[in-house]
Amino acid sequence: MKRKLDENDAPVSTANAEAPSTGATATFADLGLDSRLLQATARQNWHTPTLVQSKAIPLAIDGRDVLAKAKTGSGKTAAYTLPILQAILKRKQTSSESYTAALILVPTNELVTQVAKVLETLTSYCSREIKVSKLSDKLSDAAQRAVLSDSPDIVVATPARTWHNIKNSALSVDKLTHLVLDEADLVLSYGYDEDLQNVASSLPKGLQTTLMSATLTPEVDTLKGLFCRNPTVLDLVEPDEDGGGVSQFVVKCGEDEKFLLIYCMVKLELIKGKAIIFVSDVDRCYRLKLFFEQFGIRSCLLNSELPVNCRIHAVEEFNRGVYNIIIASDENEVVGEEKDQLESTGEEASSKNTTNEATESSEQNQAVVSSSKKRKSSRRDKNYGISRGIDFKNVAVVINFDLPLSSRSYLHRIGRTARAGQTGMALSFVVPKDKFRKHMPTSVETAENDEKVLSRIIKQQAKRGQEVKPYNFDMKAVEAFRYRMNDALRAVTKVAVREARLRELKQELLKSESLKRHFEENPLEVRHLRHDVELRTTRSQPHLKHVPDYLLPKDGKKAITPNEVGFVPFKKVLDGKGRKSRITKGRGRRVTGRKSDPLKSFKARSKTK
């Protein structure tokens, strides 16, 4: 039975009352962890547990089932991995028997790799005692069977991979003691319902289960009933809620003006720092990258067509600072979108056909999975997801180039920035109803409902004490750049986009397969791979790469955004004496003060008779 939802689309429950009122934990040593785990946490400079860690770890060590809701970036991975490692180390003090004791299920291949790396870090001082294996689609069945033949202590995989190996008798779960479902609210929406039911039927009784989620949704309630036995529910609200450190802005503009504004923002450096730009689909992903190439703006892509190795490597290089701009397609929306989609896109359709609406509603009440199955056919890779779970570091700006389909998806997108106590900015482009379909070459279907989605976003953020402010552009000031924008858009044709997609796939497949053996033997050389290379499928227009001064308004860049709204960069250019400096064109040396202006430094004497 579906639970009653509150105003934030979350199930109404007495979760806070169920959470124990334990005091705050000062250090990881107070949690009673093994000394080798304490060494690993100290090596990562983790001195004080986060809220979810201080609450969940003691419960898990005591053998309790836990259902924890905590915001993105709050340390949920360590909250469930540390108790598992503690239990395995304790058991191995008295027994040398080797078997798979813990199974961690996550919704995407990117998260499989991310969780496996966290486990590798935490077991750095006990790697001989604990073996961790990850299962992914890139491995053949024979390779996965070989990985599992050594009976690893912990297995990290998606539900589909897990059931595939259980069914083939490659993975034995007879002696399993711990089960974790990370990002539990995403698992069902990714179409894993049948796999989860099969896995649940094959698990032994008496498992200790941990469910981690960023939201409490009906999907989480379904998984709770399927896997847990009277779990302790931790509905944790930290001082900074999701998006609490994010300055949120919105721009209402036409469909072609999106390209004009983002060109001005990036090229004129009105926004600074690392940025993630969300678009609606894969085609849009390549269109925007080709548009940027016309102006010499480098960017890399994340979408469901690319091989998983390339996606993981791109995220790693972005975190290392190799790239500053990632264009991510968000065609796989996050959980709980079905209701919002019906509200935003199905009002007229439902009035025409009430019978179909009633049928869909009854299916949705019986199992939330039904709608996720309908969306499954449109995905290139059902194990791909970018707006949740992936740990992007030091993201300064999140740009919703195409507005998401719901307020909940918006919340998870902006959660990519302002993590770990930092600040960030979220900027969203919204197409008003009267400007929809006015520029067909740049139009997308989802833009029709932008105003409805924006009203729900504003209402949602107001309840959280946040404000979505208008980002004031002086459109007259950027009008001089319009002809350049039109030149670039004319070069980015449908044929160019199709060729770019084929070219990118060929390049990434070459990196993934042909050079795989070489990179295994020379792991350091993989860092030389670049994902922000130009695709070069459109005609080259070198003059667009430079911004002449006559295009800028009289007062310079400040005239474009009179309110001076923007993100403060992480790093400032300083000279050797700690002062701001600038670089002269041509010579490339730094100069400051009057000497930089030849007219001010010019000296002359009058002739005396």
From TrEMBL:
List the Pfam families hit by this protein, alphabetically.
DEAD, Helicase_C
InterPro entries for this protein? DEAD/DEAH_box_helicase_dom, DEAD_box_RNA_helicase, Helicase_ATP-bd, Helicase_C-like, P-loop_NTPase, RNA_helicase_DEAD_Q_motif
What are the GO MF terms of this UniProt record?
ATP binding; hydrolase activity; RNA binding; RNA helicase activity
Any one of the GO CC terms: cytosol
- Record-annotated Helicase C-terminal domain positions: 245-476
Per UniProt, the ranges with Polar residues bias are 343-369
Q: Classify the main location.
A: nucleus
Please report the stretch or stretches of sequence annotated as the Helicase ATP-binding domain: 57-234
Task: Summarize the protein's role.
Answer: ATP-binding RNA helicase involved in the biogenesis of 60S ribosomal subunits and is required for the normal formation of 25S and 5.8S rRNAs.
The molecule here is called RNA helicase
Q: State the species of origin.
A: Daldinia eschscholtzii
Q: Give the source lineage, highest ranks first.
A: Eukaryota, Fungi, Dikarya, Ascomycota, Pezizomycotina
